[in-house]
Amino acid sequence: MNVSDIGPRIARRAGLLIFLLALAARLATIAYFGGTTLRFGDARAYLSVAESLARTGHYPRQTDYFSFRAPGYPIFLLAATLGHPERIAAGKIANAVLGALSALLLSALAARIFHSRGVAIAAGLVGALDPGLVLMTADIQSEPLFILLILAAAFLLLSASDRPSSNLAVLSGLFLAFAALTRPFALILAPLLAAPLGDRRYPLRARGHLAASAVLGFLLGLTPWTIRNALVYRELVPVNDFAGINLYIGNSDLMDRFYRVRTRAEYDAWIKDLDRLTRDRFAELQESGEMSPARRTGAFVRMTLAERRARPDRTLPLLFHKTWDWLRPYPSPLFWPPWVVWATGLLYGALMLLAVIGGIASPRRGVLFFTIAYLALTMAAHIAFLVVWRYRLACWNPALILYGVFGASLLLGQGSADRRAVPSDTTSRS
After folding, report:
1. Are 67 and 240 in contact (CB under 8 A)?
2. What is the Cα–Cα distance from 392 to 348, expressed in whole angstroms?
3. How confident is the model at residue 7, as a pLDDT?
4. Which end of the chain is more exposed for a tag (fewer CB within 10 A), N or C?
5. pLDDT at 420 over 90
């Protein structure tokens, strides 16, 4: 193990400052919006699942009228509120703690990737105050848990490669499985656990052992829930059955219409049509007997393909709109005042540009390629299904912060000395 691969240690005082600043920002946001106020659309669904679990001791077979939700966040919510999910403020405070821990992990990752104590502390501070990440903790929603789990998986996989350590690799896979049990699209990230195979510091046998350990951890984390689903539904359902309905909504003619909505009144009418459409489709499935999770998913896939075959001229424009919807650095003007849209666009636009600069100059090319693969996979997964801007914030902002802060340090002349301290052969390392 090369000490330079580990990166500098972050002083306890600096780590405590990052954690407390992140926690204070999130608690202040919770207080501003109200400790018991629910603004997020899916919040009541999460609470309902957690309450059912607390009352019966069993996860419900169906959590929404058309599907059942992934178990990660409802179970976390139940644990965080000590079995009383109706204590909404406690759930929000738990999310604030998750966000503060994520800021610490950003700092630790920056230290390993960029070998600079200053960049590491700055990354932690930016993560602590990032407005999008802070706002996510002000309600009952799964993104704060997902972000922490993904960052933990990435940190552990990088640490496992740097040591090397098969135990850390197992933990990395385990945390990625927990992320998938929170937001199932993370299943698409499983191939990234094979990243140690590309690490040329070690013999192929050692690299294979690390990759296999990471995959083992992933299977250990995911398999018990998949077995539960097989016993309950008599079908192979890795996490849940939201993929079918999301695929259908995200690629339907109604979604094509969404990208022509220009006013809030038009949006409200669109939402009513969306609710009517999903209920109509669900009624059709009931009549046809397609009610098991796998059969529902298959039915929605067939509906999606039928609509796209009927309107092939609108498929590419829809794909273009969804791609831009993911890439745009500002929130929708339908929901936010112009000053928020402009301020956020300038902030996140600058962050993306700085991240490109930081990526070009990054001292660890293997980690950069891993990050690019992660960004590409998360983008492709959502464009194929359903694009929501907060998903983009949860998936991309932590990575953009890491490389954006490093890019800013280079422009300010603070990164050159640190980079000279890194052995030149690390540019070829994972």
Report:
1. yes
2. 12
3. 64
4. N
5. no
Q: What is the pLDDT of residue 288?
A: 77
Closest CA to 105 of 399, 332, 305, 341: 399
**DSSP-derived 3-state class of residue 91:** helix
What pLDDT score does 6 carry?
64
Helix pair angle (365-384, 338-361), 10° resolution = 140
The one-letter amino acid code at 253 reads D
For the purposes of burial, counting CB atoms within 10 Å of the CB of 13, is it exposed (0-12), middle (13-18) or buried (19 or more)? exposed
pLDDT for position 172: 98
Burial class for 4, CB neighbours closer than 10 Å (0-12, 13-18, 19+): middle
Q: Are 113 and 367 in contact (CB under 8 A)?
A: yes
Q: Which of 327, 328, 335, 390 is nearest to 139 (CA)?
A: 390
What is the model's pLDDT at position 290?
Answer: 66
What's the CA angle centered on 388, arms 291 and 393, to 5 degrees?
130
Check if the beta carbon of residue 23 is closer than 8 Å to that of residue 134. no
Please tell me whether residue 287 adopts helix, strand or coil conformation.
Answer: helix
How far is it, in rounded angstroms, from Cα 73 to Cα 49? 10
The residues pairing with 64 across neighbouring beta strands, listed in sequence order, are: 67
Q: Is 303 in a helix, a strand, or coil? A: helix
pLDDT in tens, 242-265: 888 899 999 998 998 999 998 889
Which of 108, 130, 109, 99 is closest to 14 using CA atoms? 108
Cis peptide before 196 (omega within 30 of 0): no
pTM of the prediction? Answer: 0.92
Does 282 have pLDDT greater than 90?
Answer: no
Q: In 3D, which of 378, 17, 421 has the Cα closest to residue 190? A: 378
Q: pLDDT tens, 410-419?
A: 999 854 444 4
Query: Tokens for 18?
Result: 């990052």
**What pLDDT, on a 0 to 100 scale, did the predictor assign at position 294?**
87
pLDDT for the residue numbered 67 = 82
Distance CA 68, CA 59 (A): 10
Q: Looking at residue 67, what DSSP letter applies?
A: B
Which of the four pLDDT bands, split at 50, 70 and 90, describes residue 134? very high
